[in-house]
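Q&A FORM
Asked by: J.P.
Topic: structure of Ribosomal protein L7/L12 C-terminal domain-containing protein

PROVIDED:
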Amino acid sequence: MEINCAELLILFIVLYLLNEVVKLNSRVKGLKYTLDKIYKQADVPNNALDNELKQLLNEGKDVKGVKRARETLGLSLIEAKQYVDALKMEGS
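REPLIED BY: S.T.
REPLY: Here is the structure written out as tokens.
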């Protein structure tokens, strides 16, 4: 069983990308922690947007909720939809 250079290169690239994803995930967790600390120090409720989105969801205005999440958080359409869906599941 012989492994050629292309297979080794593909394996290396996959492992490298997996490592980068793990590092990014760790960085995002750190940023969330830092942001939570800032919210606490500034006495800003970190769920103000969530409350607004939940109200829109309760009124049946899911599309407006997704739009608001996109505008406020700078998310893509898919990310905003997932965010709103998570809030919807949380409220159920």
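FOLLOW-UP: The helical segments are 5-42, 48-58, 62-73, 77-91.
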